[in-house]
Amino acid sequence: MIRFEAVGKRYPGGGEALATLDLDIAPGEFVFLTGPSGAGKSTLLKLVALIERPSRGQVIVNGQSTRQIPRRRIAQFRRGLGIVFQDHKLLADRNVFDNVALPLIIAGFSPRDINRRVRAALDLVGLANKGPRNPMTLSTGEQQRVGIARAVVSKPPLLIADEPTGNLDPELSLEIMRLFERFNELGVTLLIASHDIDLITRLGHRRVMLAEGRLVGDTAADGSGYDVDGDPAYGQD
Amino acid sequence: MARTRRSERGPRRSGPGMVARIRAYFRQHAHHSLGALGRLARQPVASLLTVAVIGIALALPAGLNVLVANARVLSAGWESAVDFSVYLQHGLELERAEALAAQTRARSGIAAVEIISAEAALAEFREHSGFTAALESLGENPLPHTLVVRPAPTLDAGAVAALAAELEALEEVELVQLDTAWVERFLGIIDIARRATEVTLLLLGLAVIIIVGNTIRLDIQNRRSEIEVMKLIGGSDGFIRRPFLYGGLWYGITGGLLAVILTGAALLALAAPVGRLAGLYGSEFSLVGPGMAGFAALLGAGTLLGWLGAWVATARHLREIEPT
Ligand SMILES: Nc1ncnc2c1ncn2[C@@H]1O[C@H](COP(=O)(O)OP(=O)(O)OP(=O)(O)O)[C@@H](O)[C@H]1O
Ligand SMILES: [Mg+2]
Fold first, then answer.
1. What percent of chain B lies above the pLDDT cut of 70?
2. Using a CB-CB distance cutoff of 8 angstroms, which residues of chain A are in contact with residue B232?
3. Strand A56-61, strand A2-10: pairing
4. Taking the CB of the first residue and of the last residue of chain A, which one, N or C, has fewer CB atoms within 10 A?
5. 8 Å CB contact of B27 and A108
6. Are strands A189-193 and A30-34 parallel, antiparallel or unpaired?
7. B304 near B204, Cβ under 8 Å?
8. Which residue of A has its CA nearest to B31?
9. Residue from the list A79, A85, A105 with its beta carbon closest to the beta carbon of B28
10. Would you call B226 and A51 a contact, using CB atoms and an 8 Å cutoff?
11. How far apart are CA B235 and CA A75, in angstroms?
12. In whole angstroms, how far apart are CA A230 and each of A4, A213, A227, A236?
């Protein structure tokens, strides 16, 4: 589903955010991306979403090298991708229903289909009766769930999330993660960046660990794989 | 390679897929046009100010244009209705001059003939010119008898010229002089006014583009985060651009409508005093408005300029906004 081939990323005027990274994520996998602050987690996700482009190597998403996607086709590419943000990025000038409907409007769905799909998505995240509300009047956890509903409403095969529980307390975080697990059961591939080692360990999915732009650990759901213990960059966080 | 691609796309392009896509297209346009209108309505003061500026900027050249058009209507009859002076041979007896005046008066195509005797002309000249001493030294009256002929208003310019030529051919007539210089001057002024109107139209049209462009630019800045979100969830450049283009379109339409109202109101307000003034000069003249076509053109110009302004602003500023 996602393959990184010797990917390096250097920001203009910045240091090396990623250095020669190789990574392979199969369809249907549930992968956590962890590592200390500045490790390059967000950068990796941005390369997947074509918010940034690699300086070296190539990123292959859904069998297509992002290098071959010109600027004008990025929008179309992103429609096959669900993105969840830490600050959920909901639009304050429209209600919950319209926020969730946005990807479908962009894709040109009929009002009937939009209605049906938005209801289903809101139902899935447990906000079936919150459609007419303004998102700013909802609790942080509810807002994040609206963001997730918007990310999945067009049924993308791949969902990426950058610290989706960063602003939530442990209980709400677990709730959100359970929600992601349900999508995974429905066949969605997930790549989630998170700091929350406790929660990640508890859920027991594949863990990819980064430190200083390098892959320092890759543990499968059953605990097999490698882990670079004692790396000074990792574990201090 | 190309073949497999085509066959992949084939089923989606044909049949109901195409219809669905066309319907989706119109649905999105409806969504964006109404959305943009709603946005204007939600900030009524700011919108009204912008619309007022556009309306005034468009009404000004439209009003000037009406003025020029009316001046031309007014002057259209003048070239033929102008008086001309018929200078008779020097030394012709007054009786013969008077007989000629009566004869001329009887012709068709003549509205009035007035005779100014050499003596009367001299007296008037003496009074106004201040050359009294010079005239005294001349001894005899250097001025001839003159007929001032006013052609019938029904004559066109050609007929007037023909009439003048006929009179000039008469034995008693020395010279016929048409007093068209001032008409030509007036027409020259109208021509300048027309040019000035065109320049004003050009400049104020540019101003409307700039006003709308700037308003849309601010709108884009205010909605920066929204635009980023749209881009992140797969909104194409065209999709993101459209609400702003419709915003400009609405500004243009409402501004054009206001210009129509302002111009119409100004015409109504002027109609009565102009009628009174024309009455004082014994004229049938009344103000001519721009007509349906003129008002439609005004509305169309507003719409086009608004859209253009938004187009320029979006072309320049939307690309700069990329999610990070
Ligand atoms: N736009 C940018 N310009 C320059 N340098 C950047 C930019 N974005 C990130 N970096 C640098 O790249 C490195 C990796 O940053 P990144 O945001 O990917 O880390 P992260 O793992 O997501 O950290 P955090 O856990 O704090 O979110 C950091 O050193 C950061 O300073
Ligand atoms: Mg980050």
1. 92
2. 49, 51, 78, 83, 85, 89
3. antiparallel
4. C
5. yes
6. parallel
7. no
8. A105
9. A105
10. no
11. 6
12. 25, 17, 9, 10
pTM of structure? 0.76
Among chain B residues, CA nearest to A47: B324
Indicate the DSSP class of residue A123: H
Which among A57, A51, A59, A54 has a CA at the least distance from the CA of A24?
A59
* A232 has pLDDT over 60: no
Residues in chain A with CB shorter than 8 Å from the CB of B25 are 108
Domains of chain A: 1-80+156-237 (3.40.50.300), 85-153 (no CATH)
Residues A46-57, mean pLDDT to the nearest whole number: 94
- B31 → closest Cβ in A85, A89, A105: A105
DSSP 8-class letter at B46? H
The number of CA neighbours under 13 Å toward the Cβ of B183 is 16
CA distance B303 to B297: 10
| Residue whose CA lies nearest to ligand 1 atom number 25 | A37
Name the token pair of B111. Answer: 């509205």
Which residues is A31 bridged to in the sheet? A191, A206
Cβ-based contacts of A110 with chain B (< 8 Å): 20, 23-24, 27
Q: pLDDT tens digits, residue range B44-83?
A: 999 999 999 999 999 999 998 888 888 877 776 665 557 7
Number of the ligand closest to the Cα of A210: 1
Report domain B84-179's class. Answer: alpha beta
A-interface mutation test, from B233, B239, B320, most A Cβ less than 10 A away:
B233
pLDDT at A206: 94
Nearest chain A residue to B240, by CA:
A106
- The alpha carbon of A4 and the centre of ligand 1 are apart by a number of angstroms equal to 18
Residue A227 pLDDT more than 80?
A: no
Contact at CB, A106 and B23, closer than 8 angstroms: no
Which residue spans of chain B are classified as CATH 3.30.70.3040?
A: 84-179
> What confidence score (pLDDT) does residue A208 get?
94
Q: Confidence band (pLDDT; 50, 70, 90) for B8?
A: very low
